[in-house]
Design goal:
The protein is of the alpha/beta class. It has a single domain, classed as Peroxisomal Thiolase, Chain A, domain 1 (3-Layer(aba) Sandwich). It contains 13 helices and twelve strands. The strands form two sheets. The protein has a ten-stranded mixed β-sheet with strand order 3-2-4-7-1-8-12-11-9-10.
Length: about 375
């Protein structure tokens, strides 16, 4: 079983590219990832492309622009977890010795829908009753405020931190800081969530190069070891669901910690799925960063920013960087690569040695969640 490494990463700035194709979004990211790894297109042995709304043969349409053909190209649709699931597939292929150099792409274009909430599958009974993602997370937020010693100001502080971090990220869709009052005064979306507590609609692409030990020896570039890669779908359940205890995320994280041999107390950087402010608070607990019931205090104490216990979402997270769904998991991996190789510029976490990325995908009636992917990384 080979160890697995990332040796190159790139992304395009997250934004609204209304006139761009999926290939137009992804090709610049792929070219820059190849350049950073010192790998030519002909050196790629396999391609895995994560997306949610790209349609058939998204990966093939991208790599043909680079003259890449004949090799395996796998397309992965796993809702918001598509890009991270693509990385998981590449990880397993490298670990099993099938390939030495794999290109992983994440890409999506949400401006194609013209605004509003993302379209969900209407065969789902909860969707037919009107369920959309902002409503789901608003219910989580209402439950959180009911059960915990927390306020709407605590929710807003998540956005304040995200925007402060994102202000130093040239790839972020939003790069201006905000305060609590501005967050709470922004347009209501679904009570208690306001506009600045919801991730923006946008487009984007990211790419990473994943290699085996043999592949790494051929390349004279910085490397980051992928110490664990876990993908779960949700447990089948019905009736009551504890909205503040996402079992799929906690199970995925616990399995990843066992696989990697280190735990939440060893992490310097975490990139987690903060599609809405409440999500970050819930996932602090699910990932074991703090004890259950202590997430609001964990945030307010400064333990999740620079100088604290662990820097959560130094990229600005989905709230600031943006969330082009299928691209997000690969964008998280790219951020981790830059952080652990000292290439993160103004947002560099000093002395970062170990990191975690976490992304969940989709809600389905009868499952506690659709998909969850957790990766752990360490300096090589």
């Amino acid at each position: 079983m080979s160890k697995v490494y990332m040796v190159g990463a790139a992304m395009v700035p997250m934004a609204k590219y209304r006139n761009s194709s999926y290939s137009g979004l992804a090709v610049p990211a792929v070219l820059n990832a190849l350049k950073s790894a010192g790998v030519s297109p002909k050196g790629i042995q396999s391609v895995v492309c994560g997306h949610a709304f790209g349609g058939m043969l998204t990966g093939q349409r991208i790599v043909k622009e680079l003259g890449i053909g004949s090799i395996p190209v796998l397309n992965v649709d796993n809702a918001c977890s598509g890009g991270a699931s693509a990385l998981n597939a590449a990880y397993k292929d490298i670990e099993a010795g099938r390939y030495d150099i794999v290109l992983v792409i994440g890409v999506d274009k949400l401006t194609q829908f013209g605004g509003g909430t993302l379209p969900l599958v209407t065969e789902d009974p909860e969707v037919r009753q009107g369920m959309v993602m902002p409503a789901l997370y608003a219910m989580r937020a209402r439950r959180y405020l009911h059960e915990r010693d927390a306020t709407v100001e605590d929710l807003a502080l998540v956005s304040v931190k995200a925007r402060r971090h994102g202000a130093n990220n040239p790839y972020a869709q939003f790069r201006s800081e905000v305060n609590v009052q501005e967050v709470l005064a922004s347009r209501p979306i679904c009570d208690p969530l306001t506009l600045l507590q919801c991730c923006p609609t946008g487009d984007g692409a990211a790419a990473v190069i994943v290699v085996s030990e043999a592949g790494r020896r051929k390349l004279n570039v910085p490397a980051v070891r992928v110490a664990a890669s876990i993908l779960h779908s949700g447990q089948v359940t019905a009736g009551f669901r504890d909205m503040l205890n996402p079992q799929i995320s906690s199970d995925s994280a616990n399995d990843a910690y066992k696989q990697a041999g280190f735990g939440p107390g060893d992490l310097d950087v975490v990139e987690l799925h903060d599609a809405f402010t409440i999500a970050e608070l819930v996932y602090y607990e699910a990932l074991g960063l703090c004890r259950r019931g202590e997430s609001a205090d964990f945030l307010k104490s400064g333990k999740t920013t620079y100088g604290g216990q662990v820097v959560v979402n130094p990229s600005g997270g989905l709230l600031s960087k943006g969330h082009p769904v299928g691209a997000s998991g690969v964008a998280q991996a790219a951020e981790v690569y830059w952080q652990l190789t000292g290439q993160a510029g103004k947002r560099q976490v000093p002395g970062a040695k170990r990191a975690l990325s976490h992304v969940t995908g989709g809600g389905i009636s009868g499952l506690d969640h659709g998909a969850c992917t957790v990766h752990l990384y360490e300096c090589a």
